[in-house]
Amino acid sequence: MVPEFELVRGNERLQCDWLFWMKIVDLASAFGWKPRSIDPKRQSSLKMFHKTVGVEVADEDAQSLAMAIRQCLSMLEANRRPTRRQIARLLMLADKNDIEGNSIRVRRDELDRIANFCHGGGFRINLHTPERLRTEN
C-alpha cells in the first residue's frame, strides 16, 4: 500500500498519493519552482514517516508551485517544446498507456487539482494512512 499525503489548509483537505506528490515536485522544479522555506519533497517525505505533526509549506512556496504547474500546462497547450529535463519529468508522470509514439498524454485534471489547491496559499502536509484514520476515530 502506498501512503498518501493529505494537504491541509484550514478546512480544506486534498489527498495525494505520496509517489505522485514526489513526481509533481520534480515536475515543478523542472519548470522553475524553487521553494524558499523548505524542500517539500525531501523534508516532508522523511519527516512524515517519523512525526505526526506534518510539514508546513509557506504561502509563497505553495503559490509558486501552482505557477510552475500551470506553466507546464500552458507550454503543452501552446505546443511549445519542453526541455529534456522537463520531458523526463513528464515521462515520470505518465503510465505506459499515456505514451504513444512521440506523444505523452498529460493527466491535466490531477495537475489542475493540485495547482488549484496550492494557489490558495500555504498548507500543511500530513501523512494520511488507514492506521492513522483508525486511531483518529
For this entry, give a set of tags.
four-stranded antiparallel beta sheet, two-stranded antiparallel sheet, globular, 6 helices, alpha+beta, 137 residues
Secondary-structure map:
Blueprint: E1 4-9, E2 12-17, H1 18-30, H2 42-48, E3 55-57, H3 59-77, H4 84-93, E4 99-100, E5 103-104, H5 108-119, E6 123-128, H6 130-136
Antiparallel strand pairs: 1-2, 1-6, 3-6, 4-5
Q: Would you kindly provide a written description of the structure presented here, covering whatever features stand out?
A:
The protein is an alpha+beta fold. It has one domain (4-136). Helix content is 50%, strand content 18%. The protein is built from 6 helices and 6 strands; from the N terminus they run ββααβααββαβα. The strands form 2 sheets. The protein has a 4-stranded antiparallel β-sheet. Helix 1 (18-30) packs across helix 3, helix 1 (18-30) packs antiparallel against helix 4 (84-93) and helix 3 packs antiparallel against helix 5 (108-119). It is globular. Residues 132-137 have low confidence and may be disordered.
- Summarize the biggest pleated sheet: 4 strands, antiparallel
Which residues form runs of ≥5 with pLDDT under 50?
132-137
**How many structural domains can be distinguished in the coordinates?**
1
Helix count from the secondary structure assignment: 6
Structural class: alpha+beta
What number is the mean pLDDT? 82
Which overall shape is indicated by the principal axes computed on the Cα atoms? globular
Between the first and last Cα atoms, what is the distance in angstroms?
21 Å
Helix content: 40-55%
Rounded to an integer in angstroms, the radius of gyration calculated over CA atoms is: 15 Å
